[in-house]
Design brief:
One of its GO terms (biological process) is protein N-linked glycosylation. InterPro entries: Glyco_trans_15, Nucleotide-diphossugar_trans. Helix 2 runs parallel beside helix 3 (116-125). The protein has helices at 3-22, 84-102, 116-125, 137-140, 148-160, 169-180, 211-217, 238-248, 259-262, 284-288, 290-301, 304-307, 312-323, 351-354, 373-378, and strands at residues 73-78, 106-110, 130-134, 193-196, 202-203, 222-224, 227-229, 273-275, 280-283, 329-331, 337-339, 342-344. The chain is globular and about 50 Å long. It contains 15 helices and twelve strands. The termini are far apart.
Length: 380
Amino acid sequence: MNTTTRYVILAVFLIIGLHSILSFTHEEYGRATSISNIKAQLPWSAGSTLEEIPDKYYIAPEHNVTQPRRANATILMLARNSDADSAVKSVRELEDKFNRKYKYPWVFLNEEPFSEEFKKRISNVASGEVHFGLVPHDHWFQPDWIDEEKATAARKKMEDDHIIYGGSLSYRNMCRFNSGFFYRNPILQNYRWYWRVEPDVHFHCEIDYDPFLYMEENDKVYGFTITMYEYLATIPTLWDTVQKFIKENPQYLAPENAVNYLSDDGGKSFNLCHFWSNFEIADMNFWRGEAYSKFFDYLDATGGFYYERWGDAPVHSIAVSLFARKNQIHFFDDIGYEHNPYTHCPRGAGKWEKGKCSCNPDRSFDYDGYSCMKQWDRIQ
């Protein structure tokens, strides 16, 4: 084989490899090409920019604690009756790893009334109070002013292009609800903080401190475990819309914000990085505030949740990165978390051992080629 032939073969393999990373079908969503042994190539060293949780937030051994101090917080799950099996598993794991020590209340929301079976099974594994709420019709369903012919055409095109949930109206309803309505639910008016949990997620480490109190006492507004790229095809006009809002409302931009996590060119373009919102520990007063309220209403008025497929993850991420200071956003490295197919496993020195974690830190999504952790670390 001559030299020219070898170069041609190499070029073909490189093109195929690049295509496999950039071209995701419906079935491939979430299965980004894993890059093993990538740690040494990254611009940060493990644990170099991680914020430590002070010892005072850790509780004493359980038999010495009668009533741990708690924040005004709840653990929140959006679920359907058909999710009972997977919802119980998520509740059981978070109870075992965290909430049996603190007994925070749970809130479950559904666009239909919960069945007695669902309520009985959940109440059997949850500690403390459990509340089951109904999502108001106007908070869930597509509003009447949406051009249904235009929305139907958009869904059909995305479905033809094999974009995940591209043809789903219910998924769009959920994204819009999680973006602008969940914190308005009557039950949640009683709380300031929430921890979002989804059915069929896993927690791999003991959590012996209270994340809510840590955030409250350290002026945090948003916490995450996984960050990744969004599909441009689902949000083609979102960043343009954001830029128009900022141009009209520059007063809402926070000093020392995290725009350089979202953008590699100072805000001219969106690099598609966002926090994976199936895990969130956050301050609902931020969503209820003037900046985010006007921001959501502005986005909603364009119809982008239905004419495209705007997700709550990029919407939340963009808002908190622009309207909060970057030091108000916290990476919960010590919470081992899995939402198939991705897992975050603690990478900070001693955290895996301290949490008695069952996950493999060498397989943590932090080091995957589809992760945005390097952009997050860059701004710290």
